[in-house]
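Before drawing any conclusions, I needed to go through one protein's amino acid sequence and its backbone structure tokens, quoted below without any editing.
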Amino acid sequence: MGEGVDPTQMCQSLVDKVAQSNQLMAITDPDLLVLFEDWFEELEDEIIALNNNSGPLSSEDLAKRIGLSSRGATFLLSKLHREKKLQS
């Protein structure tokens, strides 16, 4: 019976993440959040343009081209694919 996901642990992890998010929101300057959101939108636009001009990119290639970590590139590519903003 040791297989699968432990719902108690999963719920605790979610509660911890919500608490951490609330803590960050409490100490973050709203003007800084706006700057971050603007930067993030520009980054997404850059990725979309790269994809449109060069074709589909792997997360490793994207990470090298725009100076992100592989994990960050994977996150952004997944997000943009989910939102159907990238051509396949």
In short: The chain has four helices and no strands. The radius of gyration is 17 Å. The helical segments are 7-27, 30-54, 59-66, 70-82.
